[in-house]
Design goal:
This protein is an alpha+beta fold. It has one domain. The protein is built from two helices and seven strands, in the order H-E-E-H-E-E-E-E-E. The protein has a seven-stranded antiparallel beta sheet with strand order 1-2-3-4-5-6-7. Helix 1 runs antiparallel to helix 2. It starts with 13 loop residues before the first helix and ends with a strand.
Length: 168
């Protein structure tokens, strides 16, 4: 059996180029998509922190922070609801828009009920109590689906921002 010879008398390498291509391309694609996925998670984390900062600012200027509403004490929404402020600041993240409420007037924490899986859930912790807070801390939690969602991966993220209460 004779070997095929190339134009300069050397053995042909056309089959080895194909094998190298098949070995290198999946690795290169994995690196590229890994970088895209990591960048997307970084973006989501940044948006979550922006939402926490905006929510804390909104909570610090609300007067009063809670008002009685049907047996519960819920966020007053004056000048604007914290949930809507967070939703505007947390770009491209799905935000749970349920009202923030507590069971008593002297509660130190406002929570959303129900917490919705796959959305940003908000908790407001008041320094002192929520009727006359000294400070407001807003915590956002989110289980972010990875860019490679078919693999079933998700990443738990949270962001907290605290500001002193601003009294007019």
């Amino acid at each position: 059996m004779t070997r095929r010879r190339g134009s300069c008398g050397r053995p042909s390498e056309s089959g080895s180029v194909l094998i190298e291509f098949v070995l290198v391309v999946p690795i290169a694609l994995a690196v590229i998509f890994g970088l895209i996925g990591a960048s997307y998670l970084f973006f989501q984390n940044s948006a979550l922190h922006n939402g926490a900062s905006a929510g804390a600012r909104a909570a610090s200027i609300e007067t009063p922070l809670v008002i009685p509403t049907g047996g519960k004490y819920c966020e007053s929404g004056q000048p604007g609801p914290i949930e809507q402020t967070v939703a505007k600041a947390a770009i491209d993240l799905p935000v749970n828009t349920a009202t923030l409420c507590a069971s008593t007037q002297t509660a130190t924490q406002l929570t959303q009920s129900p917490n919705v899986a796959g959305k940003v859930n908000i908790t407001v912790t008041c320094g002192g109590n929520c009727s006359a807070p000294l400070s407001a801390s807003v915590t956002l939690t989110y289980d972010a689906p990875g860019f490679t969602a078919p693999m079933g991966l998700s990443y738990s993220m949270s962001a907290t921002s605290q500001v002193p209460e601003l009294n007019p």
